[in-house]
Amino acid sequence: MSVRALIVDDSPAMRAIITHALARDPEIEVVGTADGPASARGLIRELDPDVVTLDIEMPGMNGLDFLDKIMRLRPTPVVMLSTLTQTGAEASIRALELGAFDCMGKPSAAGAMNADYQAALAETVKAAARALPWLRQRQRSAIVEAPSVPVARASLYRPRGDAVIAVGASTGGVEALIALLSTFPEACPPTVIVQHMPESFTTSFAARLDRLSRPRVALATHGAPLVAGQIYLAPGGARHLEISGDGPWRCRLVAGDKVSGHRPSVDRLFGSVAKAVGGSAVAALLTGMGGDGALGLKAMRDAGALTVAQNEETCVVYGMPAAAKALGAVGLELPLDRIARRLLVECRA
Length: 349
Prior knowledge:
Belongs to the CheB family. By secondary structure, the chain is an alpha/beta fold.
């Protein structure tokens, strides 16, 4: 059964480009196109698409306002298409918080003919169609909201001096990381994160996490020492984030090929933490497509670290955790709202 997609974009040329890219996949049917929210509302009711692709920047009601209405009134998986600018990045992060399945860069006329882009867009749309049960669960439980009682009282929590938390996430990770880190105490263990997203998005995402978290959140820089109360987000782009040293540990940004299809790679981060920190570290592998992080999580478990994976019921995409579970890399599988507490308890002094 094919995935039925509706394309919403104010540009006729862009609607044609996206239609062409998706129509090449035999498992996707483009059932309609709309030039903005006004026409899209009627088509969503009439056609009941499995997935909507939505432009963020449109005249009249912008894509974010329309996305918010979709999520509240008629939850439907939405893939946002955005320009890879600073303004577009900030809007994309907000879209993911509102419940968009994923955000992708908007193709240029030339780039749209790129086979890799077409395949990535098609795979994202098909994965979004499978996320409808999660979307309905999200509407019921509002898992992105922080608990009313923090998992650790900021004035009392103290981490062990040798504790390090490593986290990996991909599709759905923006909401998951906000939920996870918003409950961390100010004096949390040093925490290193790889979240798959375009390079232009990571600066905005780090700033957003910093505003919502008690600890300081910033992009990792080469040579930065790991200290309590600091969360280090891997910058997107051409380098992997690793940890080196024998305590104090430091961040390393290392050039190299993609690993497990990604750069930065969760496998590279987890593997380095297993080698440098060993059993005093803990790791969490969150929602995401593919298998990045599975091998690294196995290395951490083999080194004696506690390894936690997000459970299927709270994942947007149960891909990376499922791959790790199949390898025997997962020590505990927990719902998202219980992961922070378990990590922090394990790292308590």
